[in-house]
Amino acid sequence: GQVADEQIVAAYDDMDAIDDLGRRTDVVTYEFENIAIASVERLERNGCAVAPGSDVLRITQNRLLEKTFLRSHGVPVAEFAAVVSPQDTDEACRTVGFPMVIKTCSGGYDGKGQWRVSDAAGARRALSEAKGAELICEAFVPFEREISVVATRNAADRVVTYPPGENQHDGGILAMTIAPARVSEAVASRARAMTETIARNLEIVGTFCVEYFLTKDGELLVNEIAPRPHNSGHYTMNATVCSQYEQHIRAICALPLSTPQLIRNAVMMNILGAGQGDQLCGVDELLRDPSVVLHIYGKRHAVARRKMGHFTMLTADPIDESAIERARTTHALLGWKPAAN
Ligand code: AMP
User: Quick one: which atom of ligand 1 is closest to the CA of 112?
Assistant: First the structure.
């Protein structure tokens, strides 16, 4: 909206607006997957190019379909079971075991719609709190690290993958990405190869991201697929030759993809709202650090835990604990206050 030549503001399932969008657009894409699938299907029926298409959206919108898809292509995932009725809960408790994470199959993101459960009573409580939503039970994975791979596939089946990023979450929301992830070469190339396999089987066109749990034994389990440029790939904007966004545009416009090249190591930190005002303070101090670039998204209200921007700290040195500490100290310079009128 801040940079587009034209803007249509309407509900995701407003079919008149969708038709209007299709008429005015050569290729449609999306940057958020919890949208009405009927709208994407309608654009496709009207002959409008949509990338990624509705098949990708259908699978990645539903955790159960997604995990089933992954398993059917031999990609490792944590043990899981569908839950619809209280009887299913008891069955899932037996097959998945405790502790487990119960999640809504659709509509959840940033840790929303999730319950960590350690006994059958907790599972039944989650079921009643979910108020009839379709659920999936997943084994809790005692991971050593969470990593993610951002990748782009084009219609000619070329797939490029970025170096894995290492993600740290806070309350289900991404707080920090370290790039490259502090994992062995072997783990990094296995993660990239698995991501490539997923890209080809999903037949996705565009940039997407696969999130992995890395266990102590070096096993990689897929947590989820995001069919769009991803927060954990924000480091690519400043640390690589061609960002995840440019790759996406290249892919959906049938332009050649760029081979991902890391030109700097990076620590990316999200800037979340605090519910204490809409004016960000500490920016001057932060910008005095020549290794830091700041991105502010221009959202009006800094509601608590809302993603308002991010900064990336760039360095030629490997990312160690002191670099991470420096990023945290930089982050602590920032705060929110009510905007002056
Ligand atoms: P999700 O929305 O599925 O990406 O979950 C958000 C975060 O919750 C993940 O990045 C993990 O930190 C945590 N989480 C989700 N599922 C599991 C699981 N099965 N085992 C351990 N941690 C999990």
Answer: 2
pLDDT of 160-175, one tens digit each?
A: 999 999 999 999 899 9
Confirm if 21 and 43 have CB atoms less than 8 A apart: yes
Q: Are 62 and 105 in contact (CB under 8 A)?
A: yes
| Ligand 1 proximity of 140 Cβ (cutoff 6 Å) | yes
Q: What is the pLDDT of residues 67-92, one digit of tens each?
A: 999 999 999 999 999 987 777 888 88
Q: What is the CA(334)–ligand 1 centre distance, in A?
A: 27
H helix and E strand count, the chain: 11, 17
Q: What is the pLDDT of residue 107?
A: 83
Closest ligand 1 atom to the C-alpha of 169? 12
Do the Cβ atoms of 301 and 240 come closer than 8 Å?
no
Is the whole-model pTM more than 0.70?
A: yes
Cβ(141) – ligand 1 distance below 6 Å: yes
DSSP string, 36-48: -HHHHHHHHHTT-
Tell me how far the alpha carbon of residue 169 lies from the centroid of ligand 1, in angstroms: 9
